[in-house]
Amino acid sequence: MSEFGVHSEVGRLRRVMVHRPELSLQRLTPSNHDELLFDDVLWVERAQYEHDKFDSVMRERGVEVFLLERLLAEALEASEPGRRRLIEVAASEYTVGVSLVDEVRQLLTDLKPDALAAHLIGGLTVAESGLDVGALRSSSLPAAAIDDPSMFVLPPLPNTLFTRDSSCWIYGGVSINPMYWPARRLEAYNVAAIYRYHPMFADASFEFWYPELGDEGRFEAQDFGRASMEGGDVQPIGNGTVLIGLSERTQARMIELVAKQLFAKGAAERVIAVVMTKDRAHMHLDTVFTMLDRDAVTLYPKVMDNVRAISLRPGSAPGTFHVTQEKDFLSAVADALGVKKLRVVETGGDAYQAEREQWDDGNNVVAIEPGVVVAYERNTFTIAKMRAAGIEVLPIEGFELGKGRGGGHCMTCPLLRDPI
Ligand SMILES: NC(=O)NCCC[C@H](N)C(=O)O
């Protein structure tokens, strides 16, 4: 068995990457949380406690849990070129300004790997940076514009918590995702550094579905074309099929790019694009649909009853596609999985309760093995229905973690998962 690869949504989860809440979340304030895609500020110590419990639930079930910040620090420690490259892209003309590039790159270079990783995720304020703003005022516009030492030289990336989105494994390879909102775009550089330079990955063999190896320039190109894809839309359900939500965050043109790579390597033979309405409450496919078992799914009917499914298969010539409209989404998924009919657990409660539980990630569960999922305990109506359907539910607290609008599925980036 290879060391990395995700061959289903519910096969045994063996290795996963998560992110323990840290400095970036301490930077959330009432005035910036909207822009940073959180619905409130968090009690960070409690979020850490909740996250630690989540990790233990997975570890007790035999999952090997890797922490993103640790992997990043280890990658920066292990690879001098990697460290240089990440500093270059994090502190560029576009992120800090022409006049500050050299200064900021130098002060990042002086940081030890642990501190560098902490600030690449947590952000770096003027006060923390030690920049001599007074001396720079006459030669630098960004420095002259600084009027508060709590301003950011590097922005915090609080959505790093949702490791599902910035990168996602599809069968034998990974996609490092160009993300939709500016608040999340820089996350891709940190995860790219992990996959390129951490010894655990550098020594392993796997594909890069996006961007192609060594083509980090494709992230800069994104700023013009604005094609984006986020991992919360991507589900490699097994049997050579991948579901990809065509949501607020993921466009058809980006799905084609990834599908082309998958088909060229024979890694998948069908992509089912799921055309969804665009809304904050269901920004990704996995906020309204996740798998529970080989033949069971949970979904929020108000959204999923109205999606359109379109299958993409390799065309007759390399690099071309054969596209067909599906009769409906669930029968397309059942067909792809080779099951007669899927068992469906809808969001629980009356219309009000269901809408509230969807908002609190009631349908956003992560499977540890077939029929065993982790869910936020507050979603009592949906959990009751899952249990009635024979699903083993491992409840976790999520009062703080949930404020960013993501549950167990969003907070996990599976690195190794068995087929079904
Ligand atoms: N896969 C997911 O649905 N992830 C949740 C992402 C929440 C985050 N605050 C965001 O808006 O991007």
TrEMBL record:
InterPro entries: Arg_deiminase. Its EC number is 3.5.3.6. It is an enzyme of class 3 (hydrolase). The active site is at 410 (amidino-cysteine intermediate). Keywords: Arginine metabolism, Cytoplasm, Hydrolase. One of its GO terms (molecular function) is arginine deiminase activity. Pfam families: ADI. Pathway: Amino-acid degradation; L-arginine degradation via ADI pathway; carbamoyl phosphate from L-arginine: step 1/2. The keyword Membrane does not apply. SUPFAM superfamilies: Pentein (SSF55909). GO terms for cellular component: cytoplasm. Its main location: cytoplasm. Transmembrane segments: none annotated. It is found in: Cytoplasm. GO terms for biological process: L-arginine deiminase pathway. It catalyses: L-arginine + H2O = L-citrulline + NH4(+). HAMAP family: Arg_deiminase (MF_00242). NCBIfam families: PRK01388.1. Belongs to the arginine deiminase family. This is Arginine deiminase. It comes from Nocardioides iriomotensis.
